Amino acid sequence: MRKRKKIISVVGARPNFMKVAAIHRALKKYDTEIQHMICHTGQHYDGKMSKAFFDDLELPQPDFYLGVGSATHAQQTAKIMVAFEQVIEQERPDLVIVVGDVNSTLACSLVAAKMMIRIAHVEAGLRSFDRSMPEEINRVVVDTLADYLFVTERSAIDNLKKEGMSEAKIFFVGNVMIDSLVNYLPKAIQSRSMERFGLRPSSFILATFHRPSNVDTQEGLGNIVKLLNELADHQPVVFPVHPRTNAKIASNGFQKSFKENVIITEPLPYLDFLCLMRNASLVATDSGGIQEETTFMRIPCITIRENTERPVTVEEGTNYLAGRNPTLVAEIANQVLSGKAKIGRIPKLWDGMAGERIAEILHVSLTSTLSDTRGANRFTRVSQ
Fold first, then answer.
1. Residue 32's beta-bridge partner residues?
2. What is the pLDDT at residue 52?
3. Contact predicate 210/248, CB 8 Å
4. Low-confidence ranges of the chain (pLDDT < 50)
5. Sequence-ordered list of residues with C-beta below 8 angstroms from that of 198, at least 6 positions apart, any chain
6. CATH number of 5-174+353-383: 3.40.50.2000, 3.40.50.2300, 3.40.50.720, 3.90.1170.20?
7. For the chain, N or C: smaller number of CB within 10 Å?
8. What is the DSSP letter of 283?
């Protein structure tokens, strides 16, 4: 009997869980030929929240937990590399799957590449063209190392081609974040999060901010506080506070600066947050994944950033790129809440089947008795 191929998927930050969950479900189909393992680096870790994510997403407990915790970018990346190298030496996988653009994605890709292990990058090719974002550095480096570049939108294909990537490595598969949304939305709708906050559908605004450009300086964070207070003049604002944002609020003395109509809460489990997002009249955020989820659900979204690596959400979806201009944000909010939001459409291949496509490509490539290019030859025309 032929030995099973071994794949290790890396999760580090909370959005990674949703993405790997879709891939894990899809790979179960090939369980007799592929052993899929999960490595949790611990880049983002909260005991209660981590357990909630694994339970909500029906993920098995990770096969490896590195426990690196928070640190500077260099320290965190180095800690992950040292710990993940031991995992690779022990397991010798045939492939490492990395998702998104966090430090875990970069660190594990560097280790795999140096140890001659093939790499698949899910969400490849996304570019904000803003090198002040640590995530942009991670995206560019990981894509140069990866053997499989799985993309979510056509702008990513164009970016990779301009950077000289071989078309044989590029696969337009859709969006695994949407896979999880499609799979768990029926369950999320049954969440009691609306009842918990005393809310009715389409009667509140949901907000979430964590990017350094918005929360790491007193000026930036002050602008976010002002924005939330202005939005609260229209409707109640539910604000689940990211741990690093919460720390910045405290260190800058903003704890008592919010209006009563701003409902501050701890980070929410995936299903509870998804329920709130599905029922919000408007979402204000700096998160990339939320831009995608709101586009799929056709919920208006205002992105408080100067750029986005997911332009399809603006060009085709329901996302508005407002920069940090409070006047523009107020104009868009007034437009949306007065019933004049753009309708948008769901981007191509955002159909809940991205994980299935990824799993099939990897299965064909890893287990084929022919050449390793068989999988690429079969699927590359999708990327053209």
1. none
2. 64
3. no
4. 370-378, 380-384
5. none
6. 3.40.50.2000
7. N
8. E
